[in-house]
Amino acid sequence: MIDTKLAWIGEEIASLKEQGLFTTIRTLGSAQGAWLEVDGKRVLNFSSNNYLGLANHPRLVDAAKQTMDTYGVGPAAVRTIAGTMDLHLELERRLAAFKGVEAAVTFQSGFTANLATIPALVGKGDVIFSDELNHASIIDGCRLSRAQIVRFKHADPDDLKKQIAATTEYGRRLIITDGVFSMDGDVAPLPALYDVASKHGILLMVDDAHGEGVLGTGGRGIVDHFGLHGKVDVEVGTLSKAFGVVGGVSAGKQEIVDWLRQRGRPFLFSSAMTVPDVAACIAAVDVLEESTELVDQLWSNAEYFKQGMNELGFDTGHTETPIVPVMLGEALLAQQFSKRLFEEGVFAMAIGFPTVPRGLARIRVMNSATHSQSDLDQALEIFAKVGRELGVVQ
C-alpha cells in the first residue's frame, strides 16, 4: 500500500534521477588510500579528502589502539557536565601551537564547528557578510544565528566593501569566507579581506577545512600561507580531511575560544570526539610537525596531474590547489563520465546541483600524497580515453 503522505518524496526522487542529480553512494571495502575496493572492484581513488594519506597511516592507527587501553572508547558525556579528558585538552593545545594561535577548542566535526562558532559570535540584529560560494555548514551556521545575512560576490573584496557600505543598521558584524573553496579549488583573497575587516572594525572568520594540511608551511593553513598570524579572529577547521580522522576545531583569540566553551551549542549539548579519534589526531599533528614531506609530495602530485589534464585539453577551472575540477557542464554528462571512469578503474565522483550551480557539473578530482607517478599516469590515460569517447576532448 502506498503511503500518500510520502508520495511527494517518490516524485522528487524520480525527478532527481531524470535530471542526473540522484546521488548513488558507493560502498568501500578497504581502508582509504591511493587504491580502494569500491563496490567489490579495485580502483584508483580520486574521490577522498585524504590529502596526505593519514587516514590509514600506521602511526595514527597505533596511537588510536594504544590510547584506548588507557581511556576506553568514548567520553560518555558532555564535557561541561561530566568533565573533560586531559586527552582533549592536549589535542587543543597541540592544534593551537600548530596553527600559531592563542587557543583552540574541538568539536565533533567541521560542520558542528561552524554551527557552534557563528551563532555564538552574532545573533538577531547583527550582520554577517558571507562569500556567495561558502560551504553549506557556513550557510547553516549563519541561518541558525538569526543575524542578517549579506552575500558578497565570490572572492571579491571590492563587492564586500560595497555591501558593507550599503548595510547601515547593525549591532555586531562578521565577515566569513572559506579558505579553499572545495568545489573549485581556488583560494580566498584573505589579505584583502583582512584589510577590509580591519578598516571597518569587523570580525573576520575563515573556514580552513581544505587548507589545513595543504596550504602554509607544513600544512599550517591559509593564515600561515599569507602570513596573517594574529590578524584573523577565528579559524574554523576539520580533522576529517588532511588530518585523516574526524572532528572540528575553532582556533584563534583566547577570549573567543573561552566564549565558545560557554556558548557553542554543539560543545555544550553533545559529547566530545571519541578517544581513538583524539589520539589519532594528536599523532597526525606529530607527523605534520616532524616533516613537510607529505605536504610537498601532495603538491608535486597535484601539479603533475593538472599539467597532464590541461595538455589533454580538459577544462580544470581556476584551481590553485590539489583540488582539480574537471568542468563538464551538464549533470547527466558528469554522471555518465564518472560511471565510465569507474568502469575503467578510476573512482572520481560527479558533482552537480545543489552542490554546485546548475550547468556547472563536474568531476572533482582529489589528489593525494599517496599516489605514485604511475598511478597518476594511469589515471590520465583513463581520463583521456573517456574524454574522447564522450566528446569532451579531441
List the helices and strands and how they pair.
Elements: H1 7-19, E1 35-38, E2 41-45, H2 58-71, H3 79-82, H4 86-99, E3 103-107, H5 110-121, E4 127-131, H6 136-145, E5 148-152, H7 157-166, E6 173-178, H8 190-200, E7 203-207, H9 222-226, E8 234-238, E9 248-252, H10 254-263, H11 265-269, H12 275-290, H13 293-312, E10 323-329, H14 331-344, E11 346-347, E12 350-351, E13 361-366, H15 373-389
Parallel strand pairs: 2-11, 4-5, 4-6, 6-7, 7-8
Antiparallel strand pairs: 1-2, 3-9, 8-9, 10-13, 12-13
Helix pairs in contact: 2-12, 4-12, 5-6, 5-10, 13-15, 14-15
Keywords, please?
alpha/beta, 16% strand, Aspartate Aminotransferase, domain 1, 394 residues, 13 strands, 15 helices, 2 domains, seven-stranded mixed sheet, three-stranded mixed sheet, Aspartate Aminotransferase, domain 2
Report on this structure.
By secondary structure, the chain is α/β, with parallel strands linked by helices. The protein folds into 2 domains: 130 residues, Alpha-Beta Complex (Aspartate Aminotransferase, domain 1), CATH 3.90.1150.10; 233 residues, Type I PLP-dependent aspartate aminotransferase-like (Major domain) (Aspartate Aminotransferase, domain 2). 44% of the residues lie in helices and 16% in strands. It has 15 helices and 13 strands. A hairpin with a 2-residue loop joins strand 1 and strand 2. Helix 2 packs across helix 12 and helix 4 packs parallel to helix 12. The longest helix is centred in the last third of the chain and has 20 residues. The chain starts with 6 loop residues before the first helix and ends in a 5-residue tail after the last helix. 50% of the residues are buried.
